[in-house]
Amino acid sequence: MSEFDPTPPGYIVVEGPVGVGKTSLVKRLAQSFSAHSLLEEAEQNPFLERFYRDGRQAAFPTQLFFLFQRSRQLAELRQKDLFQRTLVADYMLEKDRLFAKINLDEHELDLYEQVYQRLSMEAPVPDLVVYLQAPVDVLLGRIQKRGRYQERTIEADYLQRLSSAYTDFFYHYEKSPLLIVNASEINPIDRESDYQLLLERICEVENGKHYFNPTPLLM
């Protein structure tokens, strides 16, 4: 750890497209802050591999599985009062609708929205959202490097659509303080100096929208 004493926000969400490094960063932050982590656990979704291989045929069950999974996780957190301590998550509930809008057809989306409303989920508002961005070629490289079986057929076109949807969503996002991170050059998992720079920036943000765009000269 660096010399400064990090004081984290109470509820931090790390978001961004597939392959950008959300979960790895969440685990490091949770360790630094002695915090609880809330992880998406995408590998538990039995439809995900089929979705990446043939999205049209498996999009709806894939989306519903994630919706029920996230609803269950939030309910369990409330029962355990884990929001009373620092919590770091690798997803926000709003992402579920974001994915649904780009993956489902009109009729599927209408049914999805009905299910969503029935669940009556009231997700807590994060104290800070860290949005990780990276070009599609970087995302593809990281996906290939981590070698998850269900992700082996992800295509660049899908990642581009997903990245564009995230960009549009966070362009209009105003519910929480937002730190937008250019994650293409930074490696907070394998490079300690990068992690310390990002950690300090996370602890500095109090309100509004901020950008963290490290360059090789800073590393």
From TrEMBL:
The keyword Kinase applies. One of its GO terms (molecular function) is ATP binding. Keywords: ATP-binding, Kinase, Nucleotide-binding, Transferase. It comes from the Bacteria. InterPro entries: DCK/DGK, Deoxyribonucleoside_kinase, DNK_dom, P-loop_NTPase. Gene3D superfamilies: P-loop containing nucleotide triphosphate hydrolases. Residues 12-202 form the Deoxynucleoside kinase domain. GO terms for cellular component: cytoplasm. Pfam families: dNK. ATP binds at residues 16-24, 142-146. This is Deoxyadenosine kinase. The lineage of its organism: Bacteria, Pseudomonadati, Pseudomonadota, Gammaproteobacteria, Chromatiales.
